[in-house]
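Re: the request from the purification team.
They wanted to know what the chain is likely to look like in 3D before they choose a buffer screen. I agreed to run a prediction and write the result into the notebook, where they can find it.
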Amino acid sequence: MTRYLIINADDFGLCDSANNAVFDLFRNGFLKSSTIMMPCPKAKEAAAFSVENPQYAIGVHLTLTNEWEEKWPWGPLTGGKTIRNPEGRMWPENEDFEAHCKYDEAIAEARAQIEMAERLGMKVVQVDNHMGSLYGMNGKYLMLPKVFKLCKEKKYPFRMCTTPKDEFCPDGVPLALYNFFCRFSGVLSKAYKVPTPDYLILTDQVKSLKGKETYEQFRDAFLDFHGRIPEGITETFIHPALDTDEMKSITGTWQRRYWEYLLMKDPVVLDYFKSQDIELISYRELIDMKTK
C-alpha cells in the first residue's frame, strides 16, 4: 500500500486573515483540502470562493464551540438554548459544550451548518469538526453515531480515524479511551458507509518549543513527525493565516498559524514528501479509494 496524506486547512471562514491565506494557497496549487466554519464572520466569502472554484475539495468544519469568546464571538445558526452560553455565544470548550448540550439541538446545528453551505451553492466534499466537539469523548457517547448518521444521510465523508496508533493519541486523552473511539468510529464508518481516514494526527502533536523555535525548526519537526505515517490514509490539519493585526488580536497562536501558511508554500515540504513516497491527496481521492 501507498502512504497517503491529507493536509486540511481548518478554520476557513474564520476571518479575513484566514481566508486570504487559504485563497492564496489554493490559487497557487499548494493546498488540496479545506473546511469552512459556517457560523463565523467570513464564512460567506469562503463559501463564495468554493462556489467559484468547484475544482477544490472544500467542505464544512462543523463548529459547536467558540474558544475566543469576546475577542472573536459567534453564535449558533439555530435557536438551540443548550448549545449557547448565557451571552448567546457558543460554549468556549468541548467540556462546556458536552456538559450543557442536548443531542437533538447539537445535531440540528450541525445539520443547519451543512445545509447553509448547500444553500449557498457549495458542492460540499467532506465534513469535519472544530475541536472534536462532536466526538463525544467527554461523556456524550451517543453523539458520534448521530453525526455518522447525518453524514450518511448527506452522503459526505467524515473526519475521524478508524485505526488506533499510540503516537497519534491526543495529549491528555487516556490511551484506552483513544483506542476505543478509533475502533468505535471504524464500526460506525462501516455500518453507515461513511468514508473516513485510517489515521488522524492532531497539530499539537508536533511539539512546540514554547515559542522559542524558528520557522525552520517548526517545519523540520512537522516533516519528521509526518514522515513517519503508516501505510494507508492519514489526515492532519493546519490553520493557515496571514500575520496581520487582525489575527494577532484573535489568538495568541497567530505565529503558529502564519508558519503553517508558510509551510504549505515551502518547496522543502513538497520535496520531502516526494522523497518519502508520501502522496498528498484530498477527500476526493479518499472517497474514490474507500468506496471501490
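For the purification team: The chain has a mean pLDDT of 95.
Please add any questions underneath this entry.
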